[in-house]
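Much of the work behind modern protein science is quiet bookkeeping, done one molecule at a time. The protein below has been through that process, and both of its lines are reproduced in full.


***
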Amino acid sequence: MSVPQPTAAEVFAGWAADLRPDNVPDPVRRALQRGLLDSAGLMVAARNEDYVRATVAAADGTGRCTAIGHEGGFDAAAAALINGTAVHGEDFDDTFEGTPVHTGAVMVPALLAAAEQRKLSGASALAGLAAGSELICRMALVAPTAMHRQGFHPTAVCGAFGAAAGISVALGLPPAQIASALGIAGSMASGIIEYLAEGTWTKRMHPGWAAQAGWRAARLAECGFVGPRSVFEGTHGAFKAFAVPEIAPDFSHLREGWGACWELANLAFKPYACGTMAQPFIDCALQLRGRIPDIAAIERIDARVGEGTVHRLWEPKAEKARPSSPYSAKFSVPFCVAVSLIDGEAGLSQFTEARIADSQVTGLAKKIQYEIDPDDEYPANYTGHLTATLDDGSRIAAGQPCLRGGRRDPLDDGEIARKFAANVAFGGWSEARAGELAGYCKGLFACPDLSGLRAFAG
């Protein structure tokens, strides 16, 4: 009788079950440490926003887990949902180049909740963060852009698998149960991108939903529930369900190189509070701002773009020129460019009701057009190029060769720390309390347990 070949889930599970905190390389540990700090700051930044308040109000029951910035205790699933929604709510969280996915918004809430619930050590949380985050990144490389083209948010889909994997590793589950947790997560993964039509809130909850789904999947597997081991490459597997067939999946990313090559070491940290592919165009706008003495003299601005970004960042034209909500504005390159040219920045304060109603901003946004560049490197690289035509006929061009904050041009630790401080201040916390949270994050991976999170509940 022949022995069946290990599936991709089983190959991953075999590696992940043996992963120990000491085996996590220093560059990976550093990326996770930066992601933890960045995510914690965003939890505080969004704690008073209406979508977070609605998520907190919808939580049923109580427990020992912390939703940072909120009074009381929550069960693990609710804490993961609340924290994950807060981290991703302003689209200011870490991202991964390729098919863009957001690892921190899923994995940090998932592992904080699991570790608090089960009184796990910070070292166990580190191992879980490393395993689950790496799985999310590698899933993004299997069929780049294919999930977006099918109408799904890759963070929501890949995140459910990553959270299930990471929590399973932190709990110390054996390989068969880790593989089952992944199979179970396949029936919990979801997240359509129809929010793009009007900038509604559902994208904000996708990482939190994935985080709590991962908790459910891992717990079911731990208790003996069995999921399909062929969840990735099977006839009815994830890449058949959630990705267009025209982009052939390359499952070698899930079968080879575990532990030898770490994709998550290349996590990108955003300098601007908006969609990933809009970021290089903001850099271009800020370059133009320094070279155009009078913004009112701009007759038009032409952008060269990758075809795969059009349906999310440039169309429908009416919505992108005049976004119907601050959240919709984060996924409009015309708005992002216009507000950056006028304000000289693109932080949390640029995506408000007041700014989307400002006639100077919307008037300039209407002047910004796009043309598809067949040589654009998207999704392998995120670039930007703008050409401004002034009323005297002169033209001024600006280009950005890569995603600032990404693997080619990373933010330094000082920039990450300043971003964290600004986000915590935006959420209404004092400088002293911000320092306490930063210190806790710095030492979290060495903590015997995560009971210290309770200090940041209110």
User: Anything to note?
Assistant: The radius of gyration is 22 Å. Strands lie at 298-305, 368-372, 384-390, 395-400.
